[in-house]
Amino acid sequence: MVNFINFWLSQFRSSYKIVCCKIKTTTATTSITSTTNLYYRTITLTMSRNTFLVSVLAAASISLVVESAPGISRIVGGDQAQVGDYPYFVEMGVCGGALVAPDVILFAAHCDDLSDRQVNIGAYRKQTTEEGAQGRFCEEWIQDPLYNEDGYDYDFALCKLDKPVVIDDTEVELAINFDDEDFLTVGDDLLVMGLGYLEEGGAVPEYLQDVTVPYISNEECNGENLYQGFITDNMMCAGIPITGGRDSCQGDSGGPLVKRTIKSDGSILDTHVGVVSWGYGCADNWPGVYSRTSKRANWIKDTICNDLQSIAPFCETRSPESDIECDGEDLSITFTTNDDASSIAWRLLDSSRTEVKTRYYLIKDLEYETTMCLKLNECYLWFTGDWGGGSYAFKLNGEEILSGSTFETSKTETFCTGTAVAFSESPTTEYPTPFTSTEYPTQVSTTEYPTQSPTDSPTDGIVCKDKRMFRFGRKKCRRFVKGSRRKMKKRCKMIVKGTVVSESCSRTCGIRVGVGKCASLRANKL
Predict the structure, then answer these.
(1) Number of domains present in the structure of the chain
(2) Does residue 284 sit within a domain?
(3) Lesser CB count within 10 Å: N end or C end of the chain?
(4) Would you call 253 a catalytic residue per the annotation?
């Protein structure tokens, strides 16, 4: 077992660099690029479930406090929301979402698989449950089967929560635009909200922000001076062309775009019309692009009601809220986070090293109980790393069997159910390597990690090397960054799937037009 744990911890301590969104981490980061044929504004970097198992806590410790990151921005040109304005808004780490049923969140497919991650329902202050927010975990994730990663068409995903949430919707109610594709009229004021940067590369707000953006037609949005045909019928645009100034942005990904109406009794009805998806820049001359909710209303409803067996009131056959009887032994793990919650994660394995449960935390100073049914006569291994802190208590069939407090080193616990004996400590036991780099999502390549000494590096520590996995359609850096100097500069400043092109193509952009961190290469070349 010692060898097994040491293997995991050796994975945790690897040093990588996040390129996609420049998310600051507390311990370790990784380099991620991806292919695309569009420029994207709202891509978020959240590790997939498989990535977690390469380095359990490195992947889980993505910090939400980003001090300066041109690749991540959020609500621009708006204001701090008022308490209670958006009780359905969900903080999901580096994405937003909307609670569309007591136990289901609607957000964006490009946010990736958020299974096992803690989310904050009704979030107002970042990573806290202040003002009535409630923590839950994403237990099951389903993305739209028609989702097109290259074009962000059908950019929808759903998350089933581990426990239903009861929110007060007497003042503000959220409804999905299920039926009416003609619900919107050009010029309608729409609301979008998020917890991100106030401007591209700017400061991070502590509290929820919102902004009003006008709805514009797809015909206008596809015009010669805007997106030139990239907007499909499944997308919609909102913003201020030419002058800009108000927009959603990266980090708002997945959040809701709503049309607000006042009912006769004075209460508010927000109709969910779009999901924050992508765009060019933030509050520049280009409107934001959203996935049009009405286009996938049937899939959303069918998946919520039938696949996720939600208790949503709009489901004709609602699933009863009943506890499933355990035919083994009941385990509860109560974990209390500290103020570094986003650095905390744990994993439970059975004796065959099969995952039983994994948890990534988000909310600070919160006690949360996770329950599960364990097999009889089985032994289990629970472990976490050394990048966070907190306290925990295990109860088996209601009796406390383990507990611990804040830890500064890796922590493991073992226990058995029924008459099973403890784990064998035999050094000859071969434990499987749970995940390798070949099991990363396709957009990740370990060849992108800057391990080699750069050539023509203008500054010590800066790697001037194009990312091999960069694609714009089928074009790599050298083929994409070409044309007139003005055109090349514009392309180097684009955001492709959450990353400024000059970050992915640092050498090409530096040498050809002097843009980005390797801008001095052009001067050296000249």
Answers:
(1) 3
(2) yes
(3) C
(4) yes
The amino acid at 476: K
Give me 285's structure tokens: 């001359």
Select which of 34, 110, 294, 343 is catalytic. Answer: 110
Q: Final residue of a domain: which of 416, 446, 481?
A: 416
314 in a domain, yes or no? no
pTM above 0.85, yes or no: no
Shared domain check, 337 and 275:
no
The answer to whether 196 and 72 are in contact (CB under 8 A) is yes
Q: Is residue 162 part of a domain?
A: yes
Q: H/E element holding 193?
A: strand 189-194
Range of the domain at 492: 455-525
Whether the Cβ atoms of residue 446 and residue 437 lie closer than 8 Å to each other: yes
Question: Which one of the listed residues 85, 112, 155, 210 is annotated catalytic?
Answer: 155
Catalytic residue among 34, 61, 73, 253: 253
**Structure tokens given for 259:** 């049309």
Q: Decide: helix, strand or coil at residue 495.
A: strand
Q: Give the CATH number of the domain where residue 232 resides.
A: 2.40.10.10
From first to last of the 526 residues of the chain, give the pLDDT tens digit: 444 444 343 333 332 222 222 222 223 322 222 323 332 233 222 233 333 332 222 233 222 232 222 232 335 556 789 999 999 999 998 799 999 999 999 999 999 999 999 999 999 999 999 999 999 999 999 999 999 988 899 999 999 999 999 999 999 999 998 877 778 999 999 999 998 766 666 677 889 999 999 999 999 999 988 888 999 999 999 988 766 555 566 677 899 999 999 999 999 999 999 999 988 766 567 888 999 999 999 999 999 999 999 999 999 876 666 567 888 999 999 999 998 898 889 999 999 999 999 999 999 999 999 999 999 999 999 988 756 678 999 999 999 999 998 666 678 899 999 998 876 544 333 332 222 222 222 222 222 222 222 333 334 457 788 886 677 766 778 777 877 777 788 888 877 766 778 888 888 888 888 888 888 776 544 3
Q: Are residues 184 and 283 in the same domain?
A: yes
DSSP for residue 493: T
Structure tokens at 292: 């049009």
484 assigned to some structural domain? yes
394 contacts 381 by C-beta, under 8 angstroms: no
